[in-house]
Amino acid sequence: MNPRVKSVAPRDGYRLEITFTNGEIGIFDCNHLLSFGVFRALRDVAYFRRVRAEHGTVVWPDEQDICPDTLYQDSEKLPAPACAAPGSTPGR
After folding, report:
1. Which CATH number is 48's domain given?
2. Rounded to whole angstroms, how far apart are CA atoms 30 and 13?
3. Res. 19: pLDDT tops 90
4. Domain range holding 23?
5. How many angstroms separate the CA atoms of 73 and 17, rounded?
6. Contact by Cβ (8 Å): 51, 38
7. Residue 83 covered by a domain
8. Number of domains composing the chain
9. CA dist., res. 63 & res. 85, Å (int)
10. Within a 10 A sphere around the Cβ of 52, how many other Cβ atoms?
């Protein structure tokens, strides 16, 4: 089973920045959904920005949602933040 959505933040260009339960962060592009049925409402940027994480996926107020497996598999994963080398002291 793929990780589920822990948190989500709307980004410019109808993209979502998603933090998954395994700690990975991905960018999911919603542009391909904007002309499809219930997702047409997402073209309203103010409405798109009302996205929230709920029950392991992303949802909007009128109950549009996206399969969490799709979100994980189709998101562009961001590189992990660089960590300090073992034994190093931050700021030195």
Report:
1. 3.30.2020.10
2. 8
3. yes
4. 5-77
5. 14
6. no
7. no
8. 1
9. 45
10. 12
Q: Residues in the chain, how many?
A: 92
High-pLDDT (> 90) share of the chain, %: 84
Q: Is residue 55 part of a domain?
A: yes
Euclidean distance between CA atoms 10 and 78, whole angstroms: 15
pLDDT in tens, 46-91: 999 999 999 999 999 999 999 999 999 999 999 977 654 455 454 5
Its pTM stands at 0.86
* Spatial CB neighbours of 82, under 8 Å, sequence gap ≥ 6: none
Residue 29 belongs to some domain of the structure: yes
Alpha-carbon distance of 55 to 20, in angstroms, equals 12
Indicate if the alpha-carbon torsion angle 8, 60, 56, 68 is positive or negative. Answer: negative
53's tokens = 């994480």
Dihedrals phi, psi of 48, to nearest 5 degrees: -55, -40
Residue 85 lies in a domain: no
